[in-house]
Amino acid sequence: MTFNDVIAGIEIVRRRGTDTEIAGVEYDSRRVGPGSLFVAMQGETTDGNRYAGKAIELGVAAILTDSAEAFDDIARLHPEFPIAEIAHGRNALALASASFFGHPERKLKLTGITGTNGKTTTAFLLDAILNHAGRKTVLVGTIEYHVAGSVRPSPHTTPESRDLLELLREGVDAGASEAVMEVSSHALAQGRVYGIAYDVAIFTNLTRDHLDFHRTMDNYFAAKRRLFDGSLLHPPREAVINIDDPHGAELATVAREAGAEVFSYGLNAGEFRAERAQMSASGMTFTLQSPYGQVEVRTRLTGKVNVYNLLAACAAATARGLSLEEIRSGVAALACVPGRFQTVDEGQPFTVVVDYAHTDDALRNLTALAREFVTTTGGKVITLFGCGGDRDRAKRPLMGKAAGEGSDFVVLTSDNPRSEDPQAILQDALPGLAATHTRYAVEADRAVAIRLAIHEAKAGDIVLLAGKGHEKTQTMQGKTIPFDDAEVAAAALRELRSQGSR
């Protein structure tokens, strides 16, 4: 493929040099090699244009740059070198990558899921439903990536466009016909999915999160809108909107005006609704009402939040042409979503749950669900949580307040403190927790804190280990160490059993 082929359709400000063969597209100068097209662009933490000279030394065939100064420097030092100045770096990266990888996004029916909470569970549900119906898929999300049945680690919820398109290409080559993606607000704001035409786009909800990046809720919502309003070049064919969320009606209007067909869902309103829901700690049933009829849904997931996730996945599955019977069967086949209300059972007389809840809204939902379960057992809700370092500090007391209001006992601990002092993070969260007058303990060492929470529990109680969910590491002071809440909890439960204290 030539330079001319790769940059076709990209907004070019000016260009120097002749056409040349391109052997790859890269945005990271550490990955370039002979024949690469290097897309040098300005990012949040670094400027790829600083490495353009090094890339030329390593044998790249051509460069796209979003810097007029870098263009002038390269044109002066290397007059014949193929280079183009582009109007927008990330948009150009997305379009160049799509061209180089043969537009795999056009060969797949893509479903994109955005929202503060529920993206991962909704994605896993839809992926499972499609697989159960015999369709090969690509799954891109927070926990892991799937490529036609092959499971891979997930370095980012939504990868950079070049890496995403390579992943989609591999899926097409392996026979996939569908792709299900979590689409993060960061990815939308940065244009990582620019130029991708989604067949279905899902909006789950919007609550406070990621304000360290977006700064305001208006900016956060504006990023989410981009999946629906056509500003990424294409609106979705169909939009599936949570109409119970305060932002749902506005987003539905935005999607319709962009040309999408809109289907709404909710507990009591919308085209897709859940009726006669019955829940227990081991699962739930409800009647799915839809424009295509009704069906009884039985699942091992539980809780009101998962009713919403199921409604979203079911609505998207109908958009992808599945019958209600195929949907019912696919939902029943999914055992669990890692780190999402995942139980840890070592034979103890109380329930231990690992969950990814890491916002005040998610903590409220989680503790409310737990309260429903212990109402019948007369037990207590014991909640362990922490706040991430180098993230929105303003949400820390809100999380403390949510945990305290929903629990009988709270253990405040660490959750990826990153470069911050763990004790300082605890102090930020403590005022909101203390104001609830709920009994609590503070322990910065998360492993010790998990043991403390479990030792507090008695028969009929529920212990919620919130914040890390599926994560297998803990990051602090520049180091990343192995850490799995479920494994630590299981070890603590075995230790408890060996002591014969229950």
TrEMBL record:
The modification N6-carboxylysine is found at K224. A motif (Meso-diaminopimelate recognition motif) lies at residues 415-418. Meso-2,6-diaminopimelate binds at R391, D415, N416, P417, R418, G467, E471. This is UDP-N-acetylmuramoyl-L-alanyl-D-glutamate--2,6-diaminopimelate ligase. Its EC number is 6.3.2.13. It comes from Silvibacterium bohemicum. GO terms for molecular function: ATP binding; magnesium ion binding; UDP-N-acetylmuramoylalanyl-D-glutamate-2,6-diaminopimelate ligase activity. Residues 113-317 form the Mur ligase central domain.
